[in-house]
Amino acid sequence: MSPPRVHLRAGLAVLALTGVLGWAWTGHARRVEERFIHALAADIVPEAIAGEALARAALGQPNLLLAYGSSELISGAGERDYSASRIFRTYPTGFNVFTIARNSRNSLLIAQDLAAAGEALRGRKVVVSFTPWMFVDQQITQKKYAGNFSLLHAQELAFGAGLSYATRRRAARRMLGYLGTTERDPLLHFALRLLAGGSVLQRALFAALEPLGRLETMIVRLQDHAECLAYLRGRPKLDPAVPTAPAAVDWAAIEAHAEKEQVAHSATNPYGIEDMIWMKGLRAWRTNPGSAGSQDAKIIRLLQDSREWEDLDIMLSVLRELGARPLLLSRPINGPVWDAQGISHTARKVYYDKLHRAAAFRGVPVVAFEDHDSDLHFSRDFFSHTSRKGWVDVDEVLDAFYHDTLR
Length: 407
Fold this sequence. Notes:
The chain is an alpha/beta fold.
């Protein structure tokens, strides 16, 4: 036998052994993650850990409802007593919510998160949460996007199975607009450029590159599992046995109590803003209020021109192609604050109308709480972050969605 053939066989043997070991270790990691996933659902998992591995583990549990979002899901210490992971932590109605959220997330980043969950989404209910500010805040900045960027999730969108070429192409074009992110990985960056181009030659080159991209993604996926296991080892007192207490939930009574608390914590101003937020600096804002409707043209232009609508449609396409059963959950605009800024209800209605049209186009249900637009105590600040009272309304919707009673 010639030496080249010996080397080839030896190399193939090493690759095969590496593959078997990786497969076995991944199986071990998944079993550990699944064992502790219910215990983790009761807390806000750190940003660096709440990635693909835990999302897939949560999707594998019929009594967990996966919710993706931004700061509205994690903002405010006091409000967390009424947040979904607290209200449902003992599974009173048979489930809990597993939250994957980071500050300053937008639809394009969440689309990458969803792509990472991949085929695990098929047939599963999933909630995507956001606030109206995602559509009017002059887009997510380069710095904020880069701070939330996940190489693994970007790779899953580019190379993962289940997504059409057209959807990956649209996403690639948008992803390349955020400098300093995809460039970290030359293979991914080149692949996205090929996807974004879309010529016959570029499609052929991408097809040739795709197997290598999937191999690299598998390697990074192992790192994701390793980080989850390291996090769990660092919490030796975490008990995987989560106590449950089935019970009827009196939503009206809980909301009345939450509203009473919220009123007591927003007594320093006439806008329902949390006292600690008002006292930190918003008092100065009130000294120069806008006249009625004076800012309507500006806000309507921002809403109409926002690139976020394109990113939202990309995200909805990802959900549809992966076979998920999604719910879009928007927070309402903080009407009393926007009124004082010179933004009328007529202008605010542009947001609700565009959101409903975007969701209807992809056949996705949406709850935007527009009937709470002028509710003084639904939001805790200018940015529509959820108050104690608001959280109870959100929780009730999540409960109805899980139990198929949402109207």
